[in-house]
């Protein structure tokens, strides 16, 4: 018999696979209608599937071969925590940086809250400083 935590972890793995494959419409259907995203650099939570889909599309456009390696995953009650390692090739504009063609690698700590068979809320803390350092132009010395 699987527990609610096991079911939630399996749902989250499926969501990650859909993001990797670029099926963002299908992945968005795994979110509740009033999904809440708690993300860095925004003081207040963002609301709605569309917001999540827009943010994820920006990442997939910039890093179309993005791979998500789950290093650890554990859950309690209605929450699942993930230690994830992201890798990809910078092939599209991201933030203020044009594509560099560089391989990138960064980590993220993520917590998800579930309602029924859907993801209701996320708290994500990607190492954006590391990512930005990897895609920023290298300083030239004179």
Keywords:
142 residues, alpha+beta, 4 helices, 37% strand, globular
Q: How many whole angstroms does the radius of gyration measure?
A: 16 Å
Spatial strand order of the main sheet: 2-1-6-5-4-3
Order of helices and strands: HHEEHEEEEH
| Count of extended strands | 6
The helix tally amounts to 4
The helix content is 25-40%
Ends: how far apart? 66 Å
Q: What is the average per-residue confidence, as pLDDT, rounded to a whole number? A: 94
Helix and strand composition category: alpha+beta
Strand content: 35-45%
Sheet having the most strands: 6 strands, mixed
Spans of at least 5 consecutive residues whose pLDDT stays below 50 are none
Shape: globular
How does this model look, in words?
This protein has 4 helices and 6 strands, in the order ααββαββββα. It is 32% helix and 37% strand. The model has no long low-confidence stretch (mean pLDDT 94). The chain has 142 residues and is an alpha+beta fold. A 6-stranded mixed β-sheet has the order 2-1-6-5-4-3. β3 and β4 form a beta hairpin.
Helix and strand layout, with pairings?
Layout: H1 4-21, H2 24-28, E1 31-38, E2 46-47, H3 49-62, E3 67-76, E4 79-89, E5 103-115, E6 118-126, H4 128-135
Parallel strand pairs: 1-6
Antiparallel strand pairs: 1-2, 3-4, 4-5, 5-6
Question: What's the short story on this structure?
Answer:
With 142 residues, this protein is an alpha+beta fold. 32% of the residues lie in helices and 37% in strands.
């Amino acid at each position: 018999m699987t527990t609610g935590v096991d079911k939630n972890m399996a749902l989250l793995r499926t969501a990650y696979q859909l993001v990797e494959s670029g099926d963002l419409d299908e992945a968005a259907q795994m979110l509740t209608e009033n999904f809440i995203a708690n993300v860095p650099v925004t003081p207040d939570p963002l609301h709605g599937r569309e917001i999540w889909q827009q943010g994820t599309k920006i990442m997939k456009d910039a890093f179309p071969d993005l791979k998500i390696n789950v290093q650890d995953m554990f859950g309690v009650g209605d929450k699942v925590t993930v230690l994830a390692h992201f890798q990809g090739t910078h092939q599209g504009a991201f933030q203020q940086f044009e594509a560099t063609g560089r391989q990138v690698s960064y980590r993220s700590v993520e917590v998800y809250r579930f309602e029924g068979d859907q993801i209701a809320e996320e708290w994500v803390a990607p190492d954006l400083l590391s990512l930005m350092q990897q895609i920023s132009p290298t300083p030239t010395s004179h």
